[in-house]
Amino acid sequence: MPRHPYKKRTASPDPIYNSFEVSKLINYITFDGKKTVSRAIVYEMLGDIKKQNEDPLKLLYKAISNVSPTMEVKPRRLGGASYLVPTEVRKDRKLYLALNWIIEAAQGRSQKEFRTFKEKLLAEVVDASKNQGQAVGKRQQSEKIAEANRAFSHLKW
Q1: What domains does the chain contain, in order, with CATH numbers?
Q2: How much is the pTM?
């Protein structure tokens, strides 16, 4: 625990879609301070979704809700042994995990199939909205581990 309480900084919504989630996605993709590059990637991806006659925000929200986990495990040390204690995931952590898993899954896609990161991200978001893909598998794996360790749920903080 931190010694001093800290003020949580809130990110402002993005200017085009006025969405907090899109702004967070841009921030998580940003690498080496090149926010304009990540902003271009995300907006082009959302534009491609729009070209497919679908609402890009609804599709992104559906993908995030399909990927975000409800339970996760946290290690708890008790008497020399470590136990994985299942805990409920907070709302802001759900968003963080979902967006990072989508980005990691997009980065892990094959270079042969997709040329640019925008194409990989688009494919992963579309797959996640259909409840498929590597990011959804990561959520299922996380919840499976939490379910397996349900016997230790009485060891909560």
Answers
A1: 20-66+91-139 (1.10.455.10)
A2: 0.89
